[in-house]
Amino acid sequence: MRPIAFFDVDGTLVAGTTMREFLRFRLGTAAAEQRWRELRGDGAGRAEANRRYFRLYAGTRWAELMSEGRRWYDTWSRRPDGYVSGGLGALRRHRAHGHAVVLVSGSFLPCLLPIAEHLGADAVLCTEPETDGGGVLTGTAQPMIGRAKAVAAQRLAADWHVPAGHCFAYGDHASDLDLLGAVGHPAVVGDDPDLLRLAARYGWPRLPAQPVAAPDPCYCGCAVAAWSMPTVEIHPPAGHGAPPRNARTKEAS
Fold this sequence. Notes:
The chain is α/β, with parallel strands linked by helices. It has one domain: HAD superfamily/HAD-like (Rossmann fold), CATH 3.40.50. Helices cover 38% and strands 13% of the residues. The chain is built from nine helices and nine strands. It has a seven-stranded parallel beta sheet, with helices on both faces. It has a two-stranded antiparallel ribbon with strand order 2-8. Strand 5 (168-171), helix 8 and strand 6 (185-189) form a beta-alpha-beta unit. Helix 4 crosses helix 6 (109-119). The longest helix is centred in the first third of the chain and has 15 residues, at 62-76.
């Protein structure tokens, strides 16, 4: 049995929002920022903004996005500030101890697969846009956000026969609270005020979020598995440093 370390990506491992940066790469900064503002208009929460984002790709071939994602990451990975110090350091420690590393994100594989391969992750849990029989996106997607992250993580842990109490999780935003509460060893990256209050209450580790350069690529030969949004119920473990079910925040969604 290998303990599993689950990592949120945006703000936890990568300094930035992968979907936003990918949109900038495709459309140019000005056009992408206008679209991004429209996605968050009328008070839309993260999950709804995520759904709207994937509607932008209706009619686009999946293979095209996967190829473009690699070109985007080739540029992003050269930045001196593209990663986050605390999350990256934790990932290195887990790999050194032989733990499985799993990325959990509301983003999608065109952005996440190059990151997962670079870091030597074992699996990716993410939003999987719907495609038709010809590999063209329909514009529909079920976001991997909030509770969905916890559901996916616990399902994977069960499939790999790892007790949830033996798992670790890292997040930087209140929307990661469900994921953090579904494992025995949660940790906070950065300074989200809601997560910091919970970290102080429950004794969770707190890690810094300084931007740093990408690490050297991992040449461990891992085969990254991609998992879509599961349709199962989550049963958080009792104790193990996890908060009670009612320890949610208004920002979590």
